[in-house]
Specification:
The chain is an alpha+beta fold and 546 residues long. The chain is built from 19 helices and 12 strands.
Length: 546
């Protein structure tokens, strides 16, 4: 029979060739497993199979609130049909084993599992009921409760590539061919230690990968929080859009209807979508604050209406001085001069009120309004040197004549440019292969289905489903956000009407239909909107024609 060498401390044991190659194959299998629960379960099942053990427990070392514990991760027993943790769906309610005494902080060598975790040395016990070095009261209580008999124990440390113990495998009740309880053979110890070594390295790798993902995910969310904090106008936007995007995408995965019947995401693609959603506005970090927070048409570092008001007040004083000079010069015309003065002042104040209102940007500017701003700019005032100046500069006239909102063309382009910066930022990152679509998903939320969006003018067929979902999420969140200081919270009826009008040319009709029919809108609304905003109970009118 083919044999191979397996080290066990200072001794060397002969391992059968079949068992050697089985260990190698198990190691290869473990190294390719990406699900930690399945990985741990596979480790324990293989260890039980190799030793013909009736039961087994896999522990991992964790630190909680400064206390180091050996936590139960997987518990299995064949004869009792016992399966906890892992993929069983059954929770483990056993408290973790403290590695150190909570009062004295002395190492806990009373439990064989913690002893092995502390020393890194395997322990093979033939009969738990006939041992003095360790406390098996827990096992004995279990036996009484379950009408079981725990006898032989093989407890092996899980050591990673740095030789640090990260956990323990404990096998219970080795059986012979006829099912009788026997001690674990000494020759099997190095085999289980070899398996444990494979297992520990695989678990450590998974833990390292997960910790990197957790760190990356945290950095992503910190960036999103920084963007939200940058402007009170978009507070919460970068956290709500990912949530809504996930809701709609999950509904697409669960849908049996076209075009989503064959659509699904694996774990990597879900993570890719999450990152893209959280970073969809990362380019706003480059947008100047005075543009991002521009509340009025004339606002830069401060609102320019203050300067204009000062000019108008000076103009009023100058008109008053002119009036008084005229009265002194022509006292007989005082009444006529006074009436003319009052009309002039009234007209100046009226124009100032109109300009102040136009500055707010809340209403659409008509041609008449634009003409009136231009006409008002022809009014002049004198400085202390006697030089004449218009009450409105060319720049102020240009901004006051903004047709809608508070941003002029150049500022709007800078705002829109955030998506270009987003794509550039994300494209520059060395994403792993399974996250290569992050720039496409994050960078497509301002594209339109008819190709008139920006920055690339993509059409529906050029965009992935997640990118199209984000386009809807971005719009719906912006419409219904209840924390925008420049507008009242929009009710669902109006938001749905706007969404409906945007469907087809701007938004994907299939995704809008899914959003409404699946009830995602209801789940999102209950979570993020005021009760007063939720004024829709029947969505059928908004589905007509989709």
């Amino acid at each position: 029979m083919n044999t191979a060498l397996a080290k066990n401390g200072d001794s060397v044991t002969m391992m059968s060739g079949d068992l050697f190659w089985r260990i190698i194959n198990i190691g290869i299998s473990l190294s390719s497993e990406r699900d930690t629960s399945r990985l741990m379960e596979s480790i324990l099942i293989e260890a039980q199979s190799i030793t013909n053990a009736d039961g087994g427990t896999l522990y991992l070392i964790h630190e909680k609130d400064g206390i180091v514990l050996l936590d139960y991760e997987i518990v299995r027993n064949s004869s009792l049909k016992y399966a906890l943790g892992g993929t069983s769906g059954n929770d483990i309610n056993f408290p973790g084993l403290p590695m150190y005494d909570p009062e004295t902080n002395e190492p806990n060598h009373h439990s064989v599992a913690t002893h092995v975790a502390l020393t890194g040395e395997s322990v093979n016990i033939e009969d738990a009921y006939n041992v003095e070095n360790f406390d098996f009261s827990g096992a004995k209580n279990f036996d009484k409760r379950e009408n079981y008999h725990s006898k032989s124990f093989l407890t092996v440390p899980l050591k990673n590539h740095e030789d640090d113990v990260i956990g323990v495998i404990q096998l219970i009740n080795a059986q012979d061919k006829v099912g009788q309880l026997v001690p674990f053979h000494k020759d099997i110890e190095p085999v289980i230690e070899a398996l444990s070594s494979f297992a520990a390295i695989s678990l450590d790798n998974q833990s390292l990968i997960q910790s990197h993902k957790d760190l990356f995910n945290s950095i992503v969310k910190v960036i999103a929080q920084a963007i939200d904090a940058k402007s009170k106008f978009t507070s919460g936007h970068c956290s709500r859009v990912p949530d809504l995007t996930e809701m709609i995408t999950r509904a697409a995965c669960e849908s049996k209807s076209q075009p989503f019947s064959d659509f699904s995401l694996d774990d990597h693609q879900w993570f890719e979508l999450t990152v893209a959603a959280w970073l969809h506005d990362c380019g706003k970090l480059s947008t100047p604050d005075h543009i991002l927070d521009k509340e009025t048409k004339l606002q830069t570092i401060r609102d320019g209406i203050v300067t204009i008001t000062t000019r108008f007040e000076l103009l009023i004083k100058q008109k008053e001085i002119e009036y008084l000079h005229q009265v002194v010069k022509f006292p007989e015309n005082q009444k006529e001069l006074h009436e003319k003065f009052l009309k002039t002042i009234e007209q100046i104040k009226y124009e100032l009120a109109f300009i102040s209102k136009a500055n707010v940007g809340g209403e659409f500017m008509t041609d008449e309004d634009v003409a009136r701003v231009v006409l008002a700019s022809e009014m002049t005032w004198e400085d202390s040197k006697g030089e004449t100046h218009p009450v409105l500069t060319e720049s102020e006239v240009y901004n006051l004549c903004i047709r809608k909102g508070t941003l002029n063309k150049e500022e709007r382009e800078k705002i829109n440019n955030h998506i270009v910066v987003t794509i550039d930022m994300l494209t520059s990152l060395p994403f792993p292969k399974y996250m290569k679509n992050v720039p496409e998903i994050a960078g497509g939320h301002h594209e339109k289905m008819d190709g008139t969006g920006y920055p690339k003018g993509l059409r529906k067929e050029d965009m992935s489903i997640p990118a199209r979902v984000m386009a809807l999420s971005d719009v719906f969140e912006a419409l219904t956000a209840k924390d925008r200081p420049y507008k009242d919270p929009m009710k669902l009826s109006l938001a749905f009407s706007i969404i409906r009008k945007m469907t087809g040319d701007h938004l994907d009709s299939d995704i809008v239909k899914l959003f409404l029919e699946s009830g995602v809108w209801k789940t999102y609304s209950k979570k993020y909107l005021y009760k007063e905003q939720i004024d829709v109970t029947d969505i059928r009118p908004y589905l007509e024609g989709l």
